[in-house]
Design brief:
single chain; about 280 residues; alpha/beta; TIM Barrel; eight-stranded parallel beta sheet; 11 helices; globular
């Protein structure tokens, strides 16, 4: 496993397991345990995913010590609107069954709330109950807004990022501020574009690169993240794919490979627009 060093010195595993849309209960417990058995040491969940209890149970049942597992969870939009940041954080601790969170982040930049939410996260961080704090789905102007008031620079910005949405300007801005970038939905998705399906896992450029290294397109994409020093959190509930996604540390991409993948960019989102969401 490779690690990235956050701006406060905390080490975060470069590849994590994303628990978005993993159904609470047996499916979640089984999948998290499978991930941990396969070598993952970074689990990403959120209050909004409604599976924090299962994540906590899986970690406990895995037999792996708490200190070995990096846990990320997120402040919900509802808690921001209700200005109940402390209550939401405490509830996440209780559901996960832990005494601290490794990384606590604002899930979405809720208008007229996220600046205050950041100040509340700083209090949690200074209390020692979160080893690092950060944001998710923040564009440059959102970061500039909290920059006016912060006393703690966000450790990380988790954003939609994949070969169809490479986010180069935002990555550059985050780097200038010392903020680590993390990609959600790193493998993209199935989109309709001009009547044609756009599935990155079947993309000819990625397939050709994969053939050179005897790797899948998913492994090529995740390795691309590693080469760019971006943390990635792919999600799967299929045991073989969970294992495949972490098997990316025995090869490297060339500069030409990286350029070819970068060239697939279409500034195309599969998920919500951070400037226009209604949840």
């Amino acid at each position: 496993m490779k690690y990235n060093k956050l701006n406060n010195g905390v080490l975060i595993p470069s590849l994590g397991y994303g628990a978005f849309l993993v159904v609470d209960g047996d499916e979640c417990v089984r999948s998290i345990k499978e991930a941990l058995e396969s070598g993952y040491r970074h689990i990403d969940t959120a209050a909004a995913y409604k599976n924090e209890e299962s994540v906590g149970l899986a970690i406990k049942e895995s037999g792996i010590t708490r200190e070995e597992v990096f846990i990320t969870t997120k402040l919900s939009n509802a808690a921001q609107r209700n200005n109940d940041i402390e209550g939401a954080f405490t509830q996440s601790l209780t559901k996960l069954g832990v005494e601290y969170i490794d990384l606590y982040i604002i899930h979405w930049p809720v208008k007229e709330c996220f600046v205050n939410s950041w100040l509340e996260l700083e209090k949690i961080y200074k209390s020692g109950r979160a080893k690092a704090i950060g944001v998710s789905n923040f564009n440059r102007h959102h970061l500039e807004d909290i920059k006016k008031v912060w006393s703690v620079v966000p450790a990380l910005n988790q954003i939609e990022l994949h070969p169809r949405l490479t986010q180069k300007p935002l990555i550059k801005f985050c780097k200038e501020l010392g903020i680590t970038v993390e990609s959600w939905s790193p493998l993209g998705g199935n989109w309709e574009s001009g009547g044609l399906k756009d599935n990155l896992l079947e993309n000819e450029t990625l397939l050709a690169i994969g053939q050179k290294y005897n790797k899948s397109t998913a492994q090529v994409i995740l390795r691309w993240n590693m080469e760019l020093n971006i943390v990635a959190i792919p999600k799967s509930i299929t045991p073989s794919r969970i294992k495949e996604n972490i098997d990316i540390f025995d090869f490297s991409l060339t500069a030409e490979d990286i350029a070819a993948i970068d060239a697939l960019n279409m500034d195309k989102r599969g998920g919500p627009d951070p400037d226009n969401f209604k949840f």
